[in-house]
Amino acid sequence: MKKIVERITTRLFGRKYYAVIIGEAGSDRYDLASQIHPTKQSAQQHRRRIEQTRAYIYVTTVTFRSHHPITQLS
Predict the structure, then answer these.
(1) Of 14, 44, 51, 54, which residue is the least packed, with the fewest Cβ within 10 Å?
(2) What is residue 72's predicted lDDT score, i.e. its pLDDT?
(3) Phi, psi (rounded to 5 degrees) for 69
(4) Rounded distance between C-alpha atoms, residue 27 and residue 2, angstroms
(5) 30-37 and 56-66 as β-strands: parallel, antiparallel, unpaired?
(6) In the prediction, which pLDDT does 2 show?
(7) pLDDT at 33
(8) Would you state the pLDDT for residue 64?
(9) What is the spatial distance between Cα 57 and Cα 35, in angstroms, rounded to a whole number?
(10) What is the reported pLDDT for 29?
(11) Half-sphere exposure in the Cβ direction for 7 (13 Å, CA)
(12) Are 21 and 61 in contact (CB under 8 A)?
């Protein structure tokens, strides 16, 4: 039953994706990180990698839905 509900939700609203928003350290510039993630765990791993750098700071993770499949996912 859960699988049927997931398929209906995907059909109506699209697939859920995650994007990480980063900022350049020492400036007020914010950007979308270079990858779109299919799972929350993948986005969290990317966030941890960003937090280890000095050039960028992690700002937030946003979710969005798309009816168009994103083919090159991390």
Answers:
(1) 54
(2) 57
(3) -65, 135
(4) 46
(5) unpaired
(6) 79
(7) 87
(8) 93
(9) 16
(10) 93
(11) 4
(12) yes
SS3 36: strand
Residue 18 Cα to chain centre, angstroms:
2
Convert 47-60 to b/e letters by CB count within 10 Å (16 or more is b).
beebeeeeebebee
The predicted-structure confidence for 46-74, as pLDDT tens digits, reads as follows 999 998 988 999 999 999 999 887 765 55
| Helix, strand or coil, per DSSP, at residue 21 | strand
Q: Tokens 């509900």 appear where?
A: 5
Distance (Å, whole) CA 10 – CA 65 = 9
Is residue 51 within 8 A of residue 13, CB to CB? The reply is no
Instruction: Please tell me the total number of residues recorded for the chain in this structure.
Output: 74
> What amino acid is encoded at 21 in this protein?
I
17-41 pLDDT tens trace: 999 999 998 899 999 988 899 999 9
